[in-house]
Amino acid sequence: MDVSFCGGFMRRRATAKNVADAAGVSKWTVIRAFTPGASITEESKRRVLQAAAALNYSPNLLARSLATNLTHQVAVFVDDFANPQKLPFLETLTDRLQAEGLVAMLININNHFDHVRALLNADQRQVDAIIMFGTAFRSETLNDRRLGRSMPPMFVLARDSQIDGVPAVVCDAELALKEIVDHLYEKGYRRPGFMAGAPALSTALRRRHHFIDFWKQKGVDETAVISAERYSAQAGAESVRHYLQNTDAKDRVDVLMCENDILAIGALDEIRGQFGLRVPQDMAVIGFDNYELGGASVYGLSTYEQPKDEMVEVVIEMITGRLPPETVTLPGKLIVRNSA
């Protein structure tokens, strides 16, 4: 048996050979018993599992990875933790990864740990795949001389991919913004505004681009664009405050679309609380993501819901090889509440 230390006491860890001896089978039969889909008789598997339970044995995944060249680890890159909508996505993603026997390695992309360092770190740990979850990743990064020629397969989740050969799984932004603009136009709004978040991420989302284009198709050529710089309620409040303080009432937008619900919640607090404006009578507000707090009666935020479960399912299917690695866009759903 292997020897390890636990709490200052020496503990013996059962090995595959110990289980094989106890079950009266070969070591390779033990390995097959713990390998999903491996060929093994029900009787042999029963004996192995019974012996393993008696010896408190569990497979050594590190040793198995050396034999299979698979670590069953998936690196997940995230760079905007201020957006709480990330948490429901991460919950669903990690749940599905674990159901497949995979473990998520969460990597925080920030000023001290950029994409190149993150890629190097993930490659050194020999992860099986990399999911870039809402990160502002550029194709030029792959040209960095420090990166090897053979990187783990990469996937973009919840953003358009800007990299050739790297597939994205994303909510259909064009369809979403068409539904939003159609709804707002039918309600009689004619002076639209758009609040964008972090510049690099905003470009990848393309929501502003489609919002402006669809209004032009309706004959509305001018769309006010407000920059929030980052995705947070505080940034949304600051941005709309600056806009309202510097824009005459007669020139203000009659509907403000925010790039996500967190910006919209901050904007709503400022519009109502600090400026005393009525929503939607004086200014309507609509967000994107269907963050749970936005549905509370105090906000009543109209929004657009991304198909989170379906998006995660598709990226898992690609990682496991059950679907080909190609960009997939999925439709979401317009959620109409009191704010617009």
Kindly identify the CATH topology of the largest domain: Rossmann fold
* Proper CATH architecture of the largest domain: 3-Layer(aba) Sandwich
Name the strands of the widest sheet in spatial order. Answer: 4-3-5-6-7-13
- What letter string, H or E per element, gives the SSE order? EEHHHHEHEHEEEHEHHEHEHEEHEE
Per CATH, the superfamily of the largest domain is: Response regulator
The profile of the biggest β sheet is: 6 strands, parallel
- Rg measurement, Å: 26 Å
Strand content bin: 15-25%
DSSP strand count = 14
Q: Helicity range of the residues?
A: 25-40%
What's the end-to-end separation, in Å?
67 Å
Count of helices?
12
> Low-confidence spans: pLDDT under 50, at least 5 residues?
3-10
Domain HTH lacI-type: 14-68
Protein name: LacI family transcriptional regulator
Keywords: DNA-binding, Transcription, Transcription regulation
GO molecular function: DNA-binding transcription factor activity; transcription cis-regulatory region binding
What does this structure look like?
With 340 residues, the chain is an alpha/beta fold. The chain folds into 3 domains: 2-59, 434 Repressor (Amino-terminal Domain), CATH 1.10.260; 73-171 and 309-330, 3-Layer(aba) Sandwich (Rossmann fold), CATH 3.40.50; 173-306, Rossmann fold (3-Layer(aba) Sandwich), CATH 3.40.50. It contains 12 helices and 14 strands. The strands form 4 sheets. A 6-stranded parallel beta sheet has the order 4-3-5-6-7-13, with helices on both faces. Helix 1 (16-23) packs across helix 2 (27-33). It is elongated. Residues 3-10 have low confidence and may be disordered. It comes from Mesorhizobium sangaii. InterPro entries: HTH_LacI (IPR000843), LacI/GalR-like_sensor (IPR046335), Lambda_DNA-bd_dom_sf (IPR010982), Peripla_BP_I (IPR028082). Residues 14-68 form the HTH lacI-type domain. This is LacI family transcriptional regulator.
